[in-house]
């Protein structure tokens, strides 16, 4: 006999994690996480790549067992992973049926109870009343229509006979997400749900998450989604005491909390360093007194020198012990972008493009003028030619119509959407050789560029690695470092927020806002577009 699908617990639903800790490959990725998810919870799990966001999400769902701690669950859970599995022969219809199984079961039970009621079966009235109550609680009659609406809104495959294996990763994800958003579980656990959605799909999903009557936990780098939906943030990025931080107050509360946390971290780190430096000076002074005590001036009393020596030795030992006890236990604070002072004279023309077009890639001609300090955001649908336009402005692609003129003072850098870094080269070596190849020197000796460590984008340990050993986010940081280190007067950025942490994106946004260089940005990042709403826009038609 098949076990009937679990019914939603509604107001009784709860996920409670206590002391949750997990290590992978011998490295602890998070430690002693305490969190409670209730109906109405809107929780975001954030952090850099590799910090364990997906692992924590699956721990809450019960598909990953923690090394320590406990998780209790009451209610139904729907989870959308970044990649949906496609078992052999499983169809879209199977996925839809599974997502509304409780409603389908409730309707079948109601039909059966109706027949029993017609036959005047004993207790039929009570059975029918219970079946009707459950079907009404689930709004079971509308279940399939809700899923169909979600499939349509997300532009997901709706043909029930289509096998999931025949769909792309993005198409399978949209089917799974639509089934969840059209379903009725107590909890939605979503891993990077914006990855495969267009603007309309994003709007639909955002509204569903806002009005979901159960709890929502989402792993995402999409700052606009976090701003629109999340009320509580679980931040898995490193802290000075190795404890996970949880912030309330929505996205603004999270940002303020992170800033305050960083200030506390820096203050404690500097306090410990200052104390250790003071103790080191005291030890050095005691050691110097000990040495000088054995070299008295001529005519000094030898007996007095001998009786003084033990006290000097004890002083050295005391200070050495104090120094040992006051080791700096707080790790160095995380890196912070140190954006260089880029050149630029307000109003001075640096680059002009007149009626530029590229056959089959940038069909509508573009005319623009960049001056010192000017800002421009290039928008448009996929395929409108945004990346093509930036390649033309950078001189990497010749236009088939129109022309581009760069002034003598125009020094240009281009952050491409896709990286082409050599995986076998060491980070520092590649950075130095690339900068040297630019030939940007003053008087042949003084460099007009910055050293990699001065930019606050990669740690010393990371700069010693081969590029292929870096994460995608770290490689993106290296690309950004190369783009800004040469102190360009014109900076072209194609999807600059891709693969960057939330904190770094916000630091970069502020830096670009205040730089004297001309900046042109192509981006789909909704929060970036909100944050730069006061910048001029160039909308490319398609």
From TrEMBL:
The lineage of its organism: Bacteria, Bacillati, Actinomycetota, Actinomycetes, Micrococcales. SMART domains: AAA. Residues 262-289 form a coiled coil. Residues 15-281, 337-540 form the ABC transporter domain. GO terms for molecular function: ATP binding; ATP hydrolysis activity. It comes from the Bacteria. This is ATP-binding cassette domain-containing protein. Keywords: ATP-binding, Coiled coil, Nucleotide-binding, Repeat. InterPro entries: AAA+_ATPase, ABC_transporter-like_ATP-bd, ABCF, P-loop_NTPase.
């Amino acid at each position: 006999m098949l076990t009937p699908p679990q019914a939603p617990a509604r107001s009784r639903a709860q996920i409670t994690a206590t002391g949750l800790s997990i290590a992978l490959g011998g490295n602890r990725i998070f430690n002693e996480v305490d969190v409670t998810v209730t109906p109405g919870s809107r929780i975001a799990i954030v952090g850099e790549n590799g910090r364990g966001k997906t692992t924590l999400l699956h721990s809450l769902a019960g598909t990953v067992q923690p090394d320590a701690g406990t998780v209790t669950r009451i209610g139904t859970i729907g989870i959308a992973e970044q990649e949906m599995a496609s078992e052999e022969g499983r169809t879209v219809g199977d996925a839809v049926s599974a997502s509304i199984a409780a409603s389908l079961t409730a309707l079948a039970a109601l039909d059966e109870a109706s027949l029993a009621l017609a036959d005047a079966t004993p207790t039929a009235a009570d059975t029918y009343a219970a079946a009707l109550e459950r079907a009404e609680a689930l709004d079971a009659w509308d279940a399939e229509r809700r899923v169909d609406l979600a499939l349509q809104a997300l532009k997901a495959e709706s043909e029930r006979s289509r096998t999931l294996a025949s769909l792309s990763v993005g198409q399978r994800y949209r089917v799974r997400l639509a089934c969840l958003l059209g379903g009725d579980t107590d909890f939605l656990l979503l891993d990077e749900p914006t990855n495969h959605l267009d603007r309309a799909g994003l709007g639909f999903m955002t509204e569903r998450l806002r009005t979901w009557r159960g709890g929502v936990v989402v792993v995402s780098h999409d700052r606009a989604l976090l701003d629109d939906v999340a009320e509580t943030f679980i931040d898995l990025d490193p802290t000075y005491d190795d404890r996970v931080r949880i912030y309330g107050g929505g996205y603004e509360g999270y940002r303020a909390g992170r800033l305050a946390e960083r200030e506390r971290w820096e203050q404690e780190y500097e306090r410990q360093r200052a104390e250790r430096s003071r103790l080191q000076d005291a030890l050095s002074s005691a050691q110097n007194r000990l040495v000088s005590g054995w070299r008295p001036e001529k005519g000094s009393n030898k007996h007095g020198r001998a009786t003084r020596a033990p006290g000097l030795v004890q002083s050295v030992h005391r200070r050495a012990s104090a120094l040992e006890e006051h080791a700096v236990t707080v790790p160095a604070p995380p890196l912070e972008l140190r954006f260089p002072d880029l050149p630029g004279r307000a109003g001075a023309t640096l680059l002009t493009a007149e009626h530029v077009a590229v056959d089959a890639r940038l069909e509508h001609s573009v005319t623009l003028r960049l001056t010192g300090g000017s800002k421009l955001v290039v928008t448009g649908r996929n395929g409108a030619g945004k990346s093509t336009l930036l390649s033309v402005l950078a001189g990497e692609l010749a236009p088939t119509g129109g022309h581009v003129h760069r002034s003598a003072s125009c020094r240009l850098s281009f952050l491409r959407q896709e990286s082409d870094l050599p995986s076998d080269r060491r980070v520092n070596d590649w950075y130095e050789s690339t900068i040297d190849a630019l030939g940007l020197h003053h008087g042949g000796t003084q460099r007009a560029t910055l050293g990699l460590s001065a930019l606050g984008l990669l740690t010393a340990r990371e700069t010693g690695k081969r590029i292929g050993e870096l994460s995608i986010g770290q490689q993106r940081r290296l690309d950004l470092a190369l783009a800004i280190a040469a102190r360009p007067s014109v900076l072209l950025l194609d999807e600059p927020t891709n693969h960057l942490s939330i904190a770094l994106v916000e630091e970069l946004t502020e830096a670009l806002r205040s730089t004297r260089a001309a900046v042109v940005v192509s981006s789909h990042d909704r929060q970036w577009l909100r944050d730069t709403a006061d910048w001029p826009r160039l909308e490319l038609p398609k």
